[in-house]
Fold each of these.
Amino acid sequence: MKQLTLKKTEKQIAMVFLFIAILCQMAFTSCNENDSKFKTNSYTMTNDDSTIVNKTDSEWKAQLTPEQYYVLRQKGTERPFTSKFEDHYDGGTYTCAGCGNELFKSDSKFDAGCGWPSFYEALDSTKIKTEIDKTHGMQRVEIMCAKCGGHLGHVFDDGPKPTGLRYCVNGAALDFLKRKK
Ligand SMILES: [Zn+2]
């Protein structure tokens, strides 16, 4: 009799477990539905400026010129005073040559005399990411495109007012969108 009662309890426990398992399954399924909805929403936002660009090395190589590839993807530095933007003061927006991310306004460009296009501020703080660079026996702050991770140059604290910053950028890493009149 005692054994029978136990068996009955075990059966009840098993039923409870089965019930919990079904509940979990339902919850999981609805989570998945939410997930797929979220993904759909994200997908429709692919034109958003913040969308990260992920390409393979061979895709970059096929897309970029050798100089752009050397600077953007291999963290190279172009020779000073060689950039097409050296004496370029048209009104517009400087974009990333890798992904088109808008990086600097022409209004913030100044002649630093260093041989590379220089800007005292980024178009906004989300466009560029920074990292400490300890190569070549120096400690510098590297700047990269926040969208595709392409190397742009370095930022120094010897720039003019109002920021006191100098974004020293390889011209090969940039493209230019002329302001419409
Ligand atoms: Zn980019």
Amino acid sequence: MGARTSHQRVAVVGAGLAGLMAARTLQQSRDVRVTVFEKSRAPGGRAATRRDGARTFDHGAQYFTHRDARLADDMVAWREAGVIAPWNARVAARDNGTWRAANDAETRWVAVPGMRSLGEHLAQGVDVRYADTVSALRADAERWWLHTSDAQEHGPFDHVLLAMPAPQSHTLLAAHAPDFLSHVTATAMQPCIAALVELAAAPAVSWDAAFVNDDAVLAWVARNASKPSRGTAECWVLHARADWSVAQLEAEPASLVAPMLDAFNQLLDARVDVVHAVAHRWRYAIPAPVAADAPLAHYDAASALGAAGDWCAGGRVEGALLSGRALAEQLLASLVRR
Ligand SMILES: Cc1cc2nc3c(=O)[nH]c(=O)nc-3n(C[C@H](O)[C@H](O)[C@H](O)COP(=O)(O)OP(=O)(O)OC[C@H]3O[C@@H](n4cnc5c(N)ncnc54)[C@H](O)[C@@H]3O)c2cc1C
């Protein structure tokens, strides 16, 4: 695979943070041409924002933390560009019916004006084909072709990098058996049901967000308007527990709003006045933990296939960013070795 041409043509599948970091890193090489295929109509993947008139909801990733020095320069650049800002939230936690403050030394960062803004920033200058779902990969002697769900074939490409949740990558990779396939197969991901709720008025609580560690339904609630640049609509995001989300996974999302609002009312010990509420099902929300020494990404030079994503690196925004960059670096290193 990957016969040397004037340029190496790379297809990246998935315009989440991992795929966009991979694409941007590859584009730093003049020898590489990158095309990203994304099934939805916007970048960012699970670092998502739903906008509906004056309502705005970060219904996937809530915030992110920065621990790894390899992202230090990016963090400075994104902050200077106004793409991210600290979220100085009052965060509470409830355990066994007892409330406590959950503020710690770590800064909680958010993209502005919505979590999707980081993906939108990273997508600038990248050739992303939106609303293009990759349904299969086909190889001929030296090249790869991508089939999309509109029955089109795209290519040829010298390399294909998948930057999606592991089960979705597995669907495309299983027939081609790259050397890292067992890592993809082994990674389970848990779902999360989210409720996106606009209230008529702010509830009388002394916190902006809460980890709910003792409820049968809810795991996290957050007042979106407490984040910078979100507007004034009283928008809340409620995330259900993983076990409840598993049990409700095939239910009609609309039917899940009521039980989540009931749990929210119980949490607040009040009855909220709801203006608008919808549920969203994240089928692959959070990956199973990986070993600390697990590879940040997987590139198989023999097949010219690679895979990255948060599932390689801790199930968080920072892990996705690091994994995407690592995958691009592995591919570029393989070109130098040839
Ligand atoms: C409910 C929830 C809460 C979270 N909270 C936090 C948090 O507070 N802090 C934190 O750090 N992280 C959090 N996360 C995790 C964080 O969102 C992820 O770690 C990160 O966004 C993953 O990025 P990724 O690029 O690896 O994958 P994704 O964001 O999943 O990107 C994959 C992309 O691939 C696309 N795609 C999939 N299949 C195909 C296909 N066949 N063809 C084309 N495109 C395809 C998808 O549409 C998507 O855009 C949360 C996630 C969820 C769901």
Amino acid sequence: MKVTFPHMGNLWVVVQSLFESLGMDVVVPPENSKRTLALGAKLSPESACLPLKLNLGNFIEAAERGADTIAITGGIGPCRFGYYGEIERQILHEAGYPYDVVILEPPDGSFWGLLQRIRYLVGRKVSWYKILNEFLFSYRKAVAVDQVEDVIHRARPRFANPIEAERLYQEAKIPLAGATMNTELKAAVTRLEEGVREKELQTGKDGIREPVRVGVVGEIYTLLDPFSSVDVEQQLGHLGVHVARSIYLSGWVAEHLFHGLIEGYRSMSPYRKLAEPYLPHLVGGHGRESIGASVQFAEQGFDGLIHLFPLTCMPEITAASILPRVQKNYGIPILRLVMDEHSGRAGVQTRLEAFVDLLERASALKQDEVRKKDISFRLTAK
Ligand code: SF4
């Protein structure tokens, strides 16, 4: 059995080593690319959301490398994700890719069913003790990946040359992918933090202003996968923006696979309470979390928000109809970016540049006002 899985940003860093540690033969599909998307889009219904098209492209490219089994997570909420595994199986079989598809439903579907499928993938020889330990270690690896991403979000707008930040980012992922011990995870994050500290410009000195802060909310796949968002986070960082994201990989794993038994990095649980006045019930995906996270970012004084999701994503379309109320209540600008296979880098870049320009003017005015007030207070106090 040669097992593959869908690409979603840095997910491979965690999943490849998890599967290998359990003795599985793994085929990591090539990173998402135009070819991946073209292959997947050719087989997909036109109105299918972008992640389904990319997943199909991943599986075709993995089949070219010998994969015969797909491991994919399932869902039980009111969104199409719950049908993905089965739809993908049918599409691939009809197109001549006879994959065995193993759908790992979250434990609230059927805990026993989840265990049986894990056993099927792993084989009889590996003990449950080892399986549990490897899953827990992978979770810790996901936390380390999230920490690395956060350090890079902070670094990009504070580096004289943001390309340097990208180099540090790529270098940090290599030891994380190969790590087999907690100490190695910690060392990789610490090394990156030190590298960043050495190169960071000192804001507040020499006329260097604090970067504007933008919260990015929306559908999980588009948030975590740079190819499908046309590198929105990186583009913002290079425009001098400190980005914060509403959803992190380990937060999703903690909620869906460990069923909230462990607290995820930047947990999503506060979002539901914050969303309640606007959207008190589940709409599938992370629609409700997008509202709650937007409220949280606004209350934390962020300068703007970006709402990012794939075309035809039902939960986020619901959120998009409610977010103007958050925008009005908190006076925070929100830019909506809807992605599909026709989204181009140049178009997104132009919109980001205009948005950041607007935020920077407002932020500079605010910072000057605070400075003026401070000076006049000091003068009257003398
Ligand atoms: S959350 Fe949106 S993009 Fe993701 S599977 Fe559901 S409908 Fe598709």
